[in-house]
Structure formats: C-alpha cells, structure tokens
Amino acid sequence: MDEKWVGGHNTRKFGSLFKEAADRRPSEYLGTNVFVGASAPSRHEVASRARVGVRTLLWGNDLPHPEGTWPHTRASIHDVFYDVAPSDTAQILGRTAAEVYRFDVDKLADTVDRIGPTAVEVHGS
Known about the structure:
By secondary structure, this protein is mainly alpha-helical. 47% of the residues lie in helices and 6% in strands. The protein is built from eight helices and two strands, in the order ααβααβαααα. The chain has a two-stranded parallel sheet with strand order 1-2. The chain is elongated.
C-alpha cells in the first residue's frame, strides 16, 4: 500500500488521488489505527514485530477452535516468546489490547497475577 501512496510505477495512472486521501503512508497507521489479532502466533510472526511494530500485534489463543493453543497455551507462549524481550512480550500478550480496548489495568491486576502467565513461565529463570 505504501507503493500506491507514493505513486509507484503501477499506480501512476491514479495521479495524487491516493496520497491526497491519507496524511501518512499506509504502513504508518499500523499500531495506531490498524492492529493484527494474531491467533496462536508463530515464532516467525512474532519475529516480525520490529518490522510491523510491537504495538501492532495482539496475541490470541483462538479458544475454543481446535487450531488454538488450549490446553497447551502456557507451553505455546513459552515456545514462542522465551527469547523475546520481556517488554515486547508483555506488549503483545496484553498491553496493546489493554490500550486499544481501554481496559482498566489496575482493576485487572489481581486477575493477571492469579492466572498469569508469569515472567518465569514465559522466559524461564
């Protein structure tokens, strides 16, 4: 979409219409207006976080569908995030969703502490 916004070879016939309709490159809307709900994301998908923006990815387990992670969700989270920076892990696992949906994180703190996962479960010792 950025190519179309810039007016690459295959979009020159549109002139400046596309660019006039948006103030920023389409990719610049990732993490502010556009988010990716990643159901059971793979290591490869999580590794793309620097390119697409950590604040763009929202983790999910796709419960109750069989392709989801349950009943192995904690193991799945560990396998995908064990070597991801704890701040990035927290952002993807819940902080972005809390920001986007305006959750009251103080009210949810007891639930988070009770059901985890903990940093040790995710990253080891």
